Batch of 2 targets.
Target 1
Amino acid sequence: MKSGPGCPPAASAAGLNEDSLTLLIVTSKYRPEVCGVGDYSALLAQRLRGLGHSVDVFTAGDPGAAPEPGVFRCAEWTVPAVHDLAEWIRQQNYSHVLLQYTPTGYSRKGAFPPVALLPRLLRKVCPQCRVITTLHELFYVSNVAELRRIPRNLTVGTAQRLLLAEVAGHSSAVIVTTGERRRFVAGLARVLRWQNQKSLYEIPVGSNIAPVPFSGLERRSLQEKLGLAGKVVLGSFSTSSAPKLLLGALDAVRKSGTDACLLAVGAETAYLQSTGKEYDALAPHIVCTGKVPADEASRLLQLMDVFLLPLADGISARRGTLLAALAHGLPIAGTYGRSSDPWMQASPAFCLAPAGHSAAFFRAVQEVAADPARRDALRQAASALFHRRYTWEAIARDYDCLIGTQK
C-alpha cells in the first residue's frame, strides 16, 4: 500500500521464511473502538498467535492512533483503500486472509461492494492466497415483511443478499457462527452452484467478557452497595431483550412470593422507563448500571441468580449476551425461536419458552427463581457447555484445523 501515516510498512512480514504461514485478519473495526466484531478479531488474533502463527490485522480507524504491533489502519473504507489493500496483500505474500464480514460494518449505508469483491480480486492478483470469510451477519433486515415495509430496506436488503453471494461464493472457505446460518448458506451454495460449497464450516463466536476473580467479600460488598443483598437477582445484559418482558418477569416472580430485583447491566434507566407504568410500579426493585468496562461487567454478571434472555427470534450462539452468560456459568431463562439451533431447546443449560409466548416465559423464570437446586443444575450445565464448545482456545483450534485444509 502507499506509504504514509497509518499505512502498513512495505516489509511488515520481513524476517519470515518464504514457507512461513502468515495470516491477515481484515475487520471493519477494531479496538479501542467499541465493536463486537473488533473484539472478536482481537481475541482471535491473540489465540492464533499463541498457536504459532504470524498474524497481522488490517482495519479502518484513526491512522494517528497509538501504534500497536501487527495492527495496520486506513483512514476509512473506500474503493481506493480496498484496491491498495489487495495490492499490499500480494506484496506481503500472506498465506491466508481471514475476512470478518458484516454488511453494515464497512459502510453506514448498509452495503459496501468493494469489500465483498475482495475475495474475487485476490483470486486474480494473489492466487496463492486463500481467503476464509467469516459471516458475522448476513442481512440488515431479517425477513421479507421488513423488506416490503420501507423501500430503502428493500434496496439495501437486496444489495446485501447479492453481496453475500459474491463474498461467500468467491472465498476459499466460509465460516458461519450458528447451525441456522449454516443451513441457510448451504442452501444458497447449492442453488448458486458455488465451487466451494463443500468448504462451509460452523465455528461459534466466543465471549468478549472474560470472568474476573471475584472474592466472596467483594461480592457481598457490591451486593450491599447496589441494594441487592438477600434478594434473588434477575439479570440482563445490554439492550437486546424487550424491556416489557424483563419487567413482566420481575413482576411475575415477585407476585409468586420471591423477593426479587432486576439488575440491568449495560442499560440506561431510560431503556426500561420506556415501558411507562410498568417501570414506575417496579422502579424500587430495579438497578440500571449504564455502560460499564468489561471487568466491571463481569463482576456484575456474577451477582445474577437468573439471567434473562427473552429474544424475539430466540437465543442464538451469535449473541454475545448469551456467550457472556455461559462464560460466567449463569442459570439462563430465555426463549427459543427461528434463530435458535434445534439442540438448544433440549439442552440442560437452558430453561426456555417459545418466543412470543410471554406467559410461558414468565413461568420459566418463576420456576428457576424459586428453585436453588434448579439454578445450580443450570449453572453446571452452562459452564460445561461453554468449556466444551465456546472457549477461545477451542475456537482458535477450529480455525487452525480449517487453515490447515486451505493451502
Note: The chain has 17 helices and 13 strands.
Target 2
Amino acid sequence: MSQEKDVIISVFASSPQASTSSWANKHFDDPPIVLNLSAPSQFRNLIQTWSKTRDLFQAALRAHGYQNVTVRRRGLVTFSAGWAAMDELLKIPSESDKLQALILLDGGHTDILEPWISWAQKAIELDKFCILAHSEIQPPFISSQEHNTKIFQNAAKSSEKNKSAPWVETILPEYLQPNQKLPQKITISLPGAPGLPAVSKSWDIDPLVEVENLGNLTRCHFAGNDRPDHVYIAWYGQERFWRYLGEEWSR
C-alpha cells in the first residue's frame, strides 16, 4: 500500500550542528522524507537522469531505497554549489511546476534569470514558497547577492503588473528578524586550502542584516564576504528556514 509523504531534496546543505532530517522532524507536524545529495559533480547529472523518468522526485526516492511512497509536496534546499540542481530543474517545466518550495543558501551564479524570476513570482502570488539567502561574497562572476537581489526585484515588478494577484508583505516570525544577539558566541575556523589561508571568525550578533519579503518570497542578506560567512549560512542560518517552511506546510 502506497504512503503519501512530502519530500525534500537537500543538496550540499549539511551542517555539523544537526542533520537536515532532524530539522524536518523538529519543525514539521508531518515530517517530510529528506533525501541528501552531497557530491557537487553529480548535481546536474542526477537531476537530468531522474527527470527522464517523468517524475524526478519519485525517481529520487527509488534511488534512495524508498518503495511504495507517493510524493505529496516537493521541496528543494541547496547550499553553495548545490544551486546547480535548481538551475537544472528550472529547465524542465514539468518538474519546476510541481516543485512547491525552494530554500537557496548562498548559491546562484547565472545571468539567465528569466526562469528563476518566473518561479519566484509564483511565490509572491502565494503559489510557491521561496527563500533566497546570501552573503556578500564577490566571486569573479555573478555573486549570489546580485543573483538573488535581481530575482527578487524583477519578480516584484512582474507581480505588481499582474493586478489580479495578491502583492502583500508577509508578517515574518521573530526568528527571521535581522540583527539579533546570539545566545552565545559562535566561532567558525576553517583550515587552509590550495590558494586559501586558514581563517577564523566569531560572531556575537547574528549576521542576518536585511530581510525583504513579498507574499511567500523572502530574501535574506547575511553580512560578510569571507569563507566563514559563507559556511555560517549553512551551519547556523539554515535551521530557521526549515522552521519557517515547516510552519507554512503545517498550516
Note: The CA atoms of residues 89 and 96 lie 6 Å apart.
